[in-house]
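User: I'm putting together a small comparison set for a docking exercise, and I want a reference complex before I start. The sequence is below, and the ligand is MGD. Could you produce the 3D structure with the ligand included, as structure tokens?
Assistant: Of course. I'll restate your input first, then give the structure tokens for the complex.
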Amino acid sequence: MSEFQYSNAAREMEVYGYDSVVKSHCRMCHGGCGVLVYVKEGRVAKIAGDPDCPINHGTLCSKGLASTQLVYHPDRLTHPVKRIGPKGSGQWERISWNEALDTIAERMLRYKAEFGAESVVLGYGTGRENEAAIYRISNYFGSPNVLTAGHFCYGPRISTSIITCGSNPIADYENNPKCIVVWGNNVVISNPDCYKGEPFSQALNAGAKLIVVDPRLTRAAARADVWLQLRPGTDTALALGMANVIIQEKLYDKEFVDHYVHGWAPFVERAAEYPLERVEAITGVPREKIAEAARLYATVKPGVIQWGVAIEQQVTCADNNRALMALMGITGNLDVPGGQVLFKTAKIRNAAEFGAHKALSKEQEAKRLGGERFRLAGHFAIINPKCVWDAILEEKPYPVKMLFFISSNPVMTRANAGEVYRALEKVEFMAVADFFLTPTAELADIVLPAATWLEMDYLGDFWKRHGWLLTRRKVVQIGECRSDHEMLNDLAHRIGQGEHWWDTFEGGLDHILEPMGVTWQEFKKQDRVRGPVTYYKYKEKGFSTPTRKMELYSTLLEKWGYDPLPQYREPPESPVSQPALHEKFPYILITGARQPGFFHAENRQLPWTRELHRDPVVEIHPDTAAAEGIEDGEWVVLESPRGKIRQRAKLTAGIDPRVVSAQHAWWFPEKRDSGHGWAESNVNILTDNSYENCDPAMGATHIRSLLCKIYPEETRRPR
Ligand SMILES: Nc1nc2c(c(=O)[nH]1)N[C@H]1C(S)=C(S)[C@@H](COP(=O)(O)OP(=O)(O)OC[C@H]3O[C@@H](n4cnc5c(=O)[nH]c(N)nc54)[C@H](O)[C@@H]3O)O[C@H]1N2
Ligand SMILES: Nc1nc2c(c(=O)[nH]1)N[C@H]1C(S)=C(S)[C@@H](COP(=O)(O)OP(=O)(O)OC[C@H]3O[C@@H](n4cnc5c(=O)[nH]c(N)nc54)[C@H](O)[C@@H]3O)O[C@H]1N2
Ligand code: SF4
Ligand SMILES: [Mo]
């Protein structure tokens, strides 16, 4: 600890009478921030940011602060339960861990014997640092089906970057980029994946130019030098239009393009299909602004593109990613200080190795649901959720009999929630591991009580691409709660794969650390390590792709039968692609822009975070409100061709009058019936998951650009 921190922590302890302070690593989101956990009489009393941590420099968000309210929440599940009434009856009985794990193991083995290992689907949602353990148990079991959010979140960034330049290029804020492009991302609110808002803000304070590509006026957009308020879902056209300007005006990095790029000539030809007048017509962004942004990004160096999930939740998911990487590459911003860096991990067994993907036989891998249709996703062990719902509901191409969700609430978070709910009602056996009885858990047969980050030892940020590995230290034990890693470790022994696991999961941490030559007990004496930070690695080794170059033209996509170059496709449900539907559903709906206090469906029961956002909110322009007779703050109905929900209207001039933006994952833990109002305000009742409307390579569902109508819930008295 630094002297400052010692004295600060010591003062806190003296004034407030804390007994001790533990340095740890928050994971109320994807994790990252170093924290000081103050303990009094054996309880977590307060969480503060750790000023010594290079990820967050002492800052903390509302979710991190509210961890104490999660840990001690009275509704938390603190022992395993089994359902004793019909599904959704809310009738549960306490059982022992032995009975719970024995039952789950018995079902897994029974279904494997009768229907094949592929009939058992394990799943998680977003990154919780349990992913590698879940893949490990599934791969050794022989099931190729792990259901994640990877088809439309982060999985696309990982898979497209691996095939394009070998690894995910991360913005190097430490070395002060001079130009930052925030594209479909709101980093100061979402702090996602490998990023925190604090270093981004520091780089801005240091004078970086800022370009923001977002249909909404976010905080960053309000501060931007250029804000490109595009029509939702038109990102590939915009990116290719910018590439075209950069090429035509010869602003690209000739040395990089000549030596390190595969497919320059066809890429130039493709970009030429996007002259500014066409791009303006598609995106709605004035051509001068597009040109200004292109020139700024190509000439003010080093520059980074802070890319987010909004570009992935589209029918052009993979092409959006690849078009943005093309911009990074041709401007010479890849693997340079202050640019976009291909960081190395420390010397450990990485998440892919720990996930034991090689243990899955080719024969079983070939059975991956949707693997033939969504080949980019299939190649990276990612599946499209509808494939699982269909396998349950229609038993096609084979029956799925068992689901085991470890940290996911698919009823709230996957597209076409009505279908998700039906599949979960029908599946023969379902286990869930969670903190609470969520709308998804209420449909399970067995629910296991999961430990929060304050209740486990772990190697924080193990899966990330910024190269850091941080120490998470167990502070408290709550009831019988156990970490996902511990429960999977015990389950593994019961299904005959004990030889690949350990007596306790501490052995798993030792296994990860073994190449570094330390055990967990030794590692945890320090706070963090980082892999070697080096730049321009491609100059010696090339890129880790089939051609050893950065593949603007993807040889793998070509092999799998896709267009090897990025191209724009109109969203499947848009004013342009469906004019007749647009007459009935006149607004473009975007869903899911992040709220500070919530993490998807989480934290609605925590007083501090719920106070920040009491009700579900849809943002609309005042002109739209006037046209539809909607007043600020009133409950409105949002309707799409798939269904209706209710949210409260918030009027803002920071959105185009033709666009509305609704919050996602809303349920109401305070509604004590077992459904907890799961369908009332759940925007995924409105979203579409049909195969033909997904990204053809990645299987991403287009939840960022739909058509909807909006009207007041109350019939208004004549004015
Ligand atoms: N319409 C729309 N839908 C979306 C999105 C959108 O923008 N719009 N975003 C999508 C994206 S990007 C994602 S990643 C998904 C996320 O989808 P999910 O991951 O399914 O969503 P969460 O609500 O974050 O998490 C589910 C549950 O995990 C539990 N949990 C948290 N930590 C742990 C843990 O360590 N162990 C265990 N066992 N349980 C834990 C929580 O209590 C919570 O109930 O949602 C997607 N859904
Ligand atoms: N507080 C909080 N933090 C979170 C989460 C959370 O639920 N709450 N979820 C976590 C997860 S799993 C993820 S994936 C990340 C996501 O974090 P981000 O990548 O930051 O994603 P969002 O905030 O959902 O969306 C970013 C912006 O995209 C804009 N947008 C919408 N449609 C389009 C479009 O078509 N094109 C473009 N260019 N922009 C568009 C929205 O207006 C929004 O401002 O956040 C993570 N962090
Ligand atoms: S940004 Fe994430 S890791 Fe940091 S304090 Fe908030 S929840 Fe915790
Ligand atoms: Mo996500």
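DSSP finds 29 helices and 27 strands in the chain. The pocket of MGD (ligand 1) is lined by residues 125-126, 128, 149, 153, 309, 313, 406-410, 413, 433-436, 438, 450, 484, 591-592, 599-602, 664-665, 683-684, 687, 703 (CB under 6 Å).
User: Thanks, that's exactly what I needed.
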